[in-house]
Amino acid sequence: MKFATKAIHAGVEPDPSTGAIMTPIYQTTTYAQERVGAHKGFEYSRTANPTRAALETNLAALENAKYGACFASGLAAIDCLLKMLNPGDEVISTNDLYGGSYRLFQGIFAKYGIVFHYTPMQDAAKIEALMNEKTKLIWVETPTNPMMNVIDIEAVAAVVKRGKAILAVDNTFATPCLQRPIDLGADVVMHSVTKYLGGHSDVVMGALVTNDEAIAKEMYRIQNSSGAVCGPQDAFLVLRGVKTLHLRMERHSQNGDRVARWLLEQDAVDKVYYPGLESHPGHEIAKRQMSAFTGMVSFSLKDDTTAAAHDVLNRCKLFSLAESLGGVESLIGHPATMTHASIPADVRRACGITDSLIRLSVGIEDADDLIADLHRAITEP
Q1: Is 89 an active-site residue?
Q2: CATH 3.30.710.10 for domain 245-379
């Protein structure tokens, strides 16, 4: 079954009692049992809910995986994965990553004895140099947030398999429509479902998927024990959103490419970060492991000041100044003072997050209108 068909049909069957095409919203906390221990697969909705189960099956299928689990947010999904570790274990993470992930790593789990190492992963040898018998998790974002660096998943997997660590990939920016890390050697894939999978800026959710039965058993145990699950209404909304994922990602990618190439020609722009550009250092890897290059674009200004960046943000009309990404509407943000403000300034700068860096989530509006909006914001006084 090809991707577009799976997006619409995987995990979804007509309701047996009514024939309803859409999965019902099972807005219930508990389920009647015929007798003690005899039930229809559901006992309590923290443990399992039919609407959530349909979505978990769907998302796993989209990543060519067997097991999926949905959580109350993307960070709750990462939290579940980190709870599989023990004090003294070590994690190697890409140094350019979402600020919330960094905050969770350093602000929460580091104090419990988990040791985190951050390194550029474009060179897989840098990972190998940090690995030892305590290394239990390798955390990869690709493309990275916000610098759009591309990490060779197959190359990293080859290094990781020499040890006993889990390779986890945050696939939020690419989605399974454009990139499937498990096919490339990853053990676990994480999604901020809030973003492209939901696609309409109306749901906060996260997910983990895996083919590894042992990891899956621990994933479900922690999901149930910690209780950070999504509700059935949110699961229903994402099931609806996923049905158009392939169509939306095609338009996001087309618009992202047009905007990136337009930005390259602007005198006020210093650098443009987009893996679809032939000048991008990871372009060839991106071509190999992605089918298109998403709607995420970052760029910096020649006037490398926070004030200059904020002026651009404040002059935009169609690009809404807002956190998050991946919705049908275009968003614009300033990583240094918004999504990545929790990362120390020196760490940000070392990753390339300058004071003038601007991140775009290019939506599915008409590209001519989006470019006109940026033109006004960048070139007009």
Answers
A1: no
A2: no
